[in-house]
Amino acid sequence: MAKTDRSWSPDETDFDWIERTSRAPHPVFLEMEAAAGPEGIPILNRNSGRMLGVLAAGRRRVVEVGTAIGYSTLWLALGQPADGTIVTIDPDRDRTDRARKFWRRAGIGDERITIVSAPALDAFADGTPALAGPFDLAFIDALKDEYPAYLDALRPRLAPGAYLVADNVLWSGRTSGSRPARDGDGTAELREVCRRLANDPDFETTILPIGDGLLVAALRP
Question: Which of 42, 140, 141, 198 is spaced 20 to 30 A from 89 at the CA atom?
Fold first, then answer.
């Protein structure tokens, strides 16, 4: 029988041990982390990035909503098979141009990653060919108040057995109510997506308490 001790939770010692026992991150990740902090560019937590890399193993067609400087994209690309492809959506060309340079330095060829330079909901509505799918992994990390609309757009584009992953679903404690939320801050929409996927019999869904909360939903074949 497994031992359960609710009085214990991981601390820095445990996190340091996990980092030491994990494969060292590619040096380009360290460059990206160093650039993102001072510039206030939102990037994925490294532990969540490692989880993305695991989920991307064996996933050849990936779509990502929200690129920024391409940190999460790189975790996905390095986790994928060598013939895997990614379509990533972000309207900020300055950031996605930087992302492309980072990917190249990490050895990811341009042909593997397609950038759609438009607001995501516009790109989905316009029928952008690159977004036709079907995709076997979809990752969402963009405007929190648009998460339900992203889910609506992505659902018909998922292949049987696909993963749908969303970052920030704990929203620094606001979705659970452990910290106060404000009207219009995206909390209500995050709760809606979590509730919809948890109650959808077509998906097997969990929330991993890493980073700012990583939702992982598997579409049943």
Answer: 198
